[in-house]
Amino acid sequence: MKHVLSTHLFASHRLTTVWFDRIWEAGIPAVEIFCARQHIDWSNQAQIREFAAWFRDSELTVHSLHAPMFTDEMWGRSGPRAVINITEPEKRKRIVMVDEIKRVLEIAEYVPFQYLIQHIGVGGEEYSEHKVDAAFNALDELSVFARQRGVEVLVENIPNGLASAERLLLFNELTHMKLNFCFDVGHANLKEGVGNAFNLLKNGIRSTHIHDNNGIEDQHLFPLESKGGTIDWRKTMALLKSQPNQYPLLLELKEIPGLANPIQAAGDVFHRLEELRPPEERE
């Protein structure tokens, strides 16, 4: 499977081309850029043009961008107005949020990428038909804007009442949008279970987010490396390898304090996951 690393791993740091060099040197051929304001300022044309020049001369490719969830540099801690949520029912507020995501999509005019990963709602948000309508209006507009730039919007399963695997299928059924999915293994572990979520979404999975957790918190732990992880990676990799050409293996990890070389550690995780044998072959 193709290996992709999300810059979520070092999202607390300013994103520069030095990080891209390190990813390539670790033998990882593609990247997902995590759009957090403290990490990448998508309205800063100088930064975007610098990235464009670097990628023109590099074999490293950009697989996807993760849509921003906040407008501030503090993970939304500056207040509720910093949260970007496409289920916002008030049209005036939602338009501002959609415009912010459009600015991210405009990066494709300088740095080509295939997918934009988009959340429907925030963690723990409850289901509401009004919120479904709001998300439909936002995603309809964003999908058109994205296609004009050669990008496909993928919706990600997250642990809330709007975007579990089952609810994503319901969303497609209600809206007739036929959106494809980014399958988040860690989020599935917090909701309906990895196997159940995969089997519901598998025909539409076009990308992945691979990380572990304790089954309670969204920790973005290193698979096979971090203490407290609860995902059965043999079973999970057997599922993922059942359709290997449909999506990449994309690690979306959280930085471990004190870890000397997190990118190389992520590279090692790719290889350890690939080497896992299916449960029935262990006998």
Account of the protein in words:
The structure is a single chain. It contains nine helices and eight strands. It has 283 residues and is α/β, with parallel strands linked by helices.
Spell out the key features of this protein.
283 residues, TIM Barrel, 9 helices
Q: What topology emerges from the helices and strands here?
A:
Blueprint: E1 3-6, H1 17-25, E2 30-34, H2 45-56, E3 61-66, H3 91-105, E4 115-118, H4 129-147, E5 152-156, H5 165-175, E6 180-184, H6 185-190, H7 194-201, E7 205-209, H8 233-240, E8 249-251, H9 262-275
Parallel strand pairs: 1-2, 1-8, 2-3, 3-4, 4-5, 5-6, 6-7
Helix pairs in contact: 3-4, 5-7
What would a concise description of this structure say?
It contains 9 helices and 8 strands.
CATH class: Alpha Beta
- Sequence of secondary-structure elements: EHEHEHEHEHEHHEHEH
- The domain count comes to 1
Radius of gyration: 18 Å
> What is the β-strand count?
8
Mean pLDDT over the residues: 95
Q: Specify the CATH architecture.
A: Alpha-Beta Barrel
> How are the strands of the largest sheet arranged?
7-6-5-4-3-2-1-8
Query: What percent of residues are in strands?
Result: 5-15%
The biggest sheet amounts to: 8 strands, parallel
Fraction of residues in H or I helices: 25-40%
CATH superfamily: Divalent-metal-dependent TIM barrel enzymes
Assembly of the depicted chains: single chain
Helix/sheet category: alpha/beta
State the helix count: 9
Instruction: State the CATH topology.
Output: TIM Barrel
> pLDDT under 50 segments (min length 5)?
none
Gap from first CA to last CA: 25 Å
Assign an overall shape: globular
